[in-house]
Amino acid sequence: MKSKNLYKEQTIHHYKFRRKPNRSIGGDVGIYIFLGICSLMMLFPLFWAVCNSLKPLDEVLKNPPTILPKHPTTDNFSDLFVTLSQGWVPLSRYVWNTVFITAVGTFGHVIIASMAAYVLAKYRFPGGQLFFRVAVIALMFNGYVTGIPNYLILCKLHMVDTYWALILPAIGGSLGLFLMKQFMDGFPMSLVEAAKIDGASELLIFFKLVMPNVKPAWLTISIFSIQNLWNNAQIQYIYTESKKMLRYALDQVAALGVIARQGQQNAVIVLTMSVPIIFFIFSQSQIMETMATSGLKD
What we know:
This protein is mainly alpha-helical. The protein is 71% helix and 0% strand. The C terminus is likely disordered. It has one domain: MetI-like (MetI-like fold, Orthogonal Bundle), CATH 1.10.3720.10. The radius of gyration is 23 Å and the shape is globular. Keywords: Cell membrane, Membrane, Transmembrane, Transmembrane helix, Transport. One of its GO terms (biological process) is transmembrane transport.
């Protein structure tokens, strides 16, 4: 569409003619050195976890510990899968529950938050600003504060011990609405009006024009949603063993506290953090763009 191409030209023009920072070469070198040290400090825990998961048991229990494994092995992961397969609920069931809840919850959160943000950012109606302020205030409360109200509401809706007990709260999260609304404030309303003149419907404008141009924003809330759902045990909402998630099964292995399973516990840590990290690696450029522009307006 012409409107989509016009928006891309405006974005290129903005980044092409923005001011360059007035810094010396020495200042740039100092900044890069400082950022390099900070990045190493943040990457070291991940590197340490991966190395520990590849160590045999004698190296895991060695004192003082070593960073790199002398005899790397994948026995910890194979032993973990054997331990999980010995339960009466197969490992594939835990994996299916986790993938289904994560996929549906993330998709629903992205669509609902994007639609609500689009209306709040581009249309004026009574109570719109009040609704957005309430959503911002909701960011102050974590899951421990809202746990009991959520449980009571889900009981009234007869959703306890169902997949919806985890999917529905994830869809209604306020963080995605906040990020999408701040990002869509910078989307030109003139492009929406031009598309309407061309005869496009509201749904066509939203899915064909708006969503492709706010891709960095919905990729950002996708990684947040995946991280929350993939690592969500929430055993207080689901009682049936066959409906529980992979994180719950992994936590049961890690909670045994047996010395012989220290290597399996290290493998649990790597598996728990692997999926969010992999998704972040493939979408990090878009996420950084969202964080840089979420508070800016035209």
